[in-house]
Amino acid sequence: MGEMIAGMLICVGIFLIVMLVVYILFLLTLQNTMNSVHPDNRTMAPGLVWLLLVPILNIFWMFFVVLKISESLANEYRDRGLNTRGDSFGKTMGLIVAGLSIATIALSGVSGALRGNDLDVAGPGMIVGLLSNFLSLVQLVCWIVYWVQIAGYGSTLRNSREDRPSRGYEFDNYERKRRRRERGSSRDGDYDDEDENEDDDDGWGSRKPRTSY
């Protein structure tokens, strides 16, 4: 009997370790995707996703992370001129995952209370428990879908990095041309238009600075 219990405990321990490793990989995906977003477009520091490892806090923190990642991705896609196709950037699926997490925890508590306090309501308690298990399965599927979505957005941003310079580059390029313009106008009012067009070959010469800076 003791060996059986020990074996069950070992299996449970291995399962928990595997789940922890998988969850850490999920958090790494979230962090890497946020790292692909320009700092000016981020509404949350990438490292804050690791607060999802904190028990109890992670139940509510998931809502915050989902919303902030969605906002950051929307800003970055819009800034790079990428086609958003009306995407919610994972917000819809992420909020479903967060909501189902609260629902399953609540139903599990209700099921335990029904089974523990009154044997006559063991039937309803079992039904509530089965419903909780079903929602847990749905949550798992939605979580995987959300993970794939965020990984896809991050991959798109990393692959498009070479095609379009970041906002910082755009702003620095404009600043260099502005300083040359000021130096040119200080020379007895003479300014050579060739200076202004000096960097036009980089594809950003005609761009104006964003007012958000």
Write structural notes for this entry.
By secondary structure, this protein is mainly α. It has helices spanning 2-35, 57-80, 91-117, 122-160, 167-185, 193-196. The chain contains 6 helices and no strands. It is elongated.
Task: Give structural attributes.
mainly alpha, 213 residues
Give the gist of this structure:
With 213 residues, the chain is an all-alpha fold. The protein has helices at 2-35, 57-80, 91-117, 122-160, 167-185, 193-196. Helix 1 runs parallel beside helix 4, helix 2 (57-80) runs antiparallel to helix 3 and helix 3 packs antiparallel against helix 4 (122-160).
Could you outline the blueprint of secondary structure elements for this entry?
Elements: H1 2-35, H2 57-80, H3 91-117, H4 122-160, H5 167-185, H6 193-196
Helix pairs in contact: 1-4, 2-3, 3-4
- Secondary-structure element sequence? HHHHHH
* Low-pLDDT ranges: 162-175, 190-213
Alpha plus pi helix count: 6
Largest sheet: none
- Approximate strand percentage: under 5%
| SSE class | mainly alpha
Gross geometry = elongated
Number of strands: 0
Distance between the termini: 69 Å
Radius of gyration: 26 Å
